[in-house]
Design brief:
This protein has one domain. It has a two-stranded antiparallel sheet with strand order 1-2. The longest helix has 19 residues. The chain is globular. By secondary structure, it is mainly alpha-helical.
Length: about 130
C-alpha cells in the first residue's frame, strides 16, 4: 500500500479532529460527506437515512474515478447516482485504501485544490492494467 496516502489520511484526520473531535475513521468521515452532500445540515437521521447517507458518500467519492455519475436530486433533495461500472474484487485492506484515497481526493476538491488530472487510485491500477 501507498504510505503517502496513509500520511495524507492522517493529516486529514488531524484537520477534521479540530472540528469534529477525535475518533473519526473512514466510516464516520463517509457519514460526514453524506451529510455535506445532502446539504440539510445536522439533524437526527433515521437508521435508513444513515445508510442512504453512506451510499451517497460512497457514490460521491467514487464518482471522479468513473464508477458513478450524479443524475440529479429527488423531491426531498437527496442526490441520486447512475451506476457506471463494477469495482474490481478488492480485499478489505484494499477497499480501505481505496476509500482513504477517494476521501482525500474529495477534500482536495472541496478545498479547490487542483484535481483536474485525477489519477486512478493505486489499488485499482493493477486491475486496469490487466484488462
Amino acid at each position: 500500500m501507498d504510505y503517502a496516502i496513509e500520511i495524507k489520511f492522517k493529516e486529514l484526520l488531524a484537520e477534521l479532529d479540530k472540528t469534529f473531535g477525535g475518533g473519526l475513521d473512514v466510516q464516520s468521515i463517509l457519514f460526514l460527506i453524506g451529510v455535506q452532500e445532502l446539504g440539510k445540515g445536522h439533524k437526527n437521521f433515521s437508521k435508513r437515512e444513515k445508510t442512504e447517507l453512506m451510499h451517497v458518500a460512497v457514490c460521491t467519492v467514487l464518482e471522479p474515478y468513473g464508477y458513478y455519475k450524479t443524475i440529479g436530486r429527488d423531491g426531498d433533495n437527496w442526490p441520486h447516482f447512475e451506476f457506471l461500472k463494477e469495482l474490481p474484487p478488492l480485499d478489505e485492506r484494499q477497499q480501505q485504501h481505496l476509500m482513504k484515497e477517494a476521501i482525500i481526493t474529495y477534500f482536495q476538491a472541496e478545498n479547490n485544490e487542483n484535481i483536474d488530472n485525477i489519477e486512478v487510485p493505486e489499488v485499482l491500477r493493477y486491475f486496469e492494467e490487466r484488462e
